[in-house]
Structures are given as C-alpha cells and as structure tokens.
Description:
Belongs to the HAD-like hydrolase superfamily. The structure is a single chain. The chain has helices at 17-24, 48-57, 73-82, 95-105, 118-126, 142-149, 168-178, 206-216, 228-237, 253-263, 277-282, 300-310; strands spanning 10-11, 29-32, 61-65, 92-93, 111-115, 130-132, 155-160, 184-187, 193-197, 200-203, 221-222, 246-250, 266-270, 292-294. The protein is α/β, with parallel strands linked by helices. It folds into two domains: 10-67 and 227-310, HAD superfamily/HAD-like (Rossmann fold, 3-Layer(aba) Sandwich), CATH 3.40.50; 109-222, Rossmann fold, CATH 3.40.50. The strands form three sheets. It has a seven-stranded parallel beta sheet with strand order 1-14-13-12-2-3-4. A five-stranded parallel beta sheet has the order 6-5-7-8-11, sandwiched between helices. The protein has a two-stranded antiparallel sheet with strand order 9-10. α4 (95-105) packs parallel to α5 (118-126). The relative contact order is 0.18.
Amino acid sequence: MSHGTNRQIKNLLDVSTEEKRNFLNSFDYVLTDCDGVIWTIVKPIEGAGEGVSALHENGKRVIFISNNSVRSHEKYVEKFKEGNINASIDDVLHPSLATICYLRKINFKGLIYCIGSSEFKKKLQEAGYEYIDGPNEQIEDFVTLWKAVKDDNPVKAVIIDTDFNVSSAKLIRAEIYLKNPECLFIAGTTDMMLPITKGFKIIGVGPYYKILEEASGRRAVVVGKPGDALKDIVIDKYNIKDPKRVLFIGDTLEQDIGFGTKCGFKTLLVMTGSATKMDLLTHPKKQELPDYYLEAFGDFTKVFDDVTVKNKI
C-alpha cells in the first residue's frame, strides 16, 4: 500500500517468506494494545487468542499496553480467559499503573485532584496516595459553581484520565489548581476517539485534557500512549535493553504506532479497530505509519505457518 510520502506499507502476509522470516526473527518482545486489537468492548476479536499463542510458542514475550484504566484487573483477567489468552495482570500496563510508576519515580508526596474512573482512584488509594475529586452534584448557577470549584485544599497534582462523568465544573476546578505553577499536571489516556465496535467511535478523553492544557497554558506529563513519560516507564518496567528488538502492535496511528516509533520499536497495525486503510493512504505524519499491517491479530498464525512450512525459523 503506497502513501503520499512514497513509503510502502505492506500487508505482512503478502511479503516473501524470507521477509516474513527476517521480520519474525527481528524481535523478542511484543507489546500490544488491547481494545480494538485483542478484543472489542463487547467480545474477543476472532483469532486474536490464537495469534497470541503463536507468538508465545515461538519464544516471544507478549505484554499488553492499554490506555484503558476503567477496566478492573479482574475484568482484564476475565477477558484474557474469554479470548483463550494465557496472560496475567502482571503482563498489563495501563494509565493508572503508569501514573503510580511515575509518581514513585519522582518521589511524589502530596494531595491529588483526580478526574478519573472509580477504578483509577482505587488504584491510587491502594498505592498509598491521597486524592480528592468532584464536584459531583448538579450545578445550575454561578454562585453554586463557585462554591463547588474554589477551595483551599493543598493540591500538589492534577490527574485526568477517563471519566464518563466529566463535567465543566470538574475541568474548572482542575484549572484553578493548575494556576499554581508547582502543581503537577498528569494525563493518562489521550485518545481523541474511542472505538466501540468496527466503524463506530465515541469521544475519548483527549478533548478534555486538551481543554485543560489550553486553559492553563500548561503541558501535561502524559503517562498513557503516546506519552514521552510512558516510554521511559515501559522500558524500565520490562527491562528492555534493545528497543530495536521490540514489536509494538496497535490499531491507532497516533497513540499506538506513534508511540512505538517514538520508543524505537518496530510497529505493526491491525485493521480491527480505529484505523482504516484510507488512513494509511492519507495520514500526513510518517512517524505514525507502521512498518507492516495485518487485517487482524490472528493472521500471525498464517505468518508463522508460512515460515515454518518452508523453513523453520
């Protein structure tokens, strides 16, 4: 598939057996997104479990890097089982866990104002961090709004992640805290749109954290994909010595492929989630285009079959 930048983006199934073999031999780690790659919101993606098994059977370490902190650890394990995937929660990194890694790395002490899911807040609390949130009541006038958003709490960090109950009042309160230049500003997921099913997306967290950046004049430390802070967290957490020996798989160009490129990983796009083939043809940022693509994660079984039949890798 050609692109306006004159870069050829090939379906991995269509390349020669030798090129497949060289590619499979070029990485030891596989870091993969989950939503839109391994499963949809409602069910496992057909063949994904077999694709993960094929990678495991050929000596690849598979790690799941998600932008979804709404799903509990128990739900992650449940979804792995539904998809016949041999994995545990230790194989998963998502924004709440990445946030905790970052806060520990900088030895953060202090009160947090959190716009996020109950699961995200639970993880902060379990890690020993104190947070406040809200307002959660309905507000209909400016006097009530002001009383709800202005306080003297000594907030040292504002964190925003997925919150299905985000409101104007919460964003206003966050921006007031961010007027203090010593208050940290951290963002988890930054997805502008979230794929629910094939061809159907909803607004993600991205627009809200962008509102806060514009209103405050601050730039968030992004611990979700494709953040610079996440790059260091991933490499440190999984003891990655050579980024060139890592493959990143995703369904979005900016969050997944852009992150993989930023880290120096090889990249592969699957077409079961957010990105389309038209996106591959028209996307203007070369650094957010993959090395290869597959129609679905399960196609890895066909790739390994082709190479194994003709010559053991």
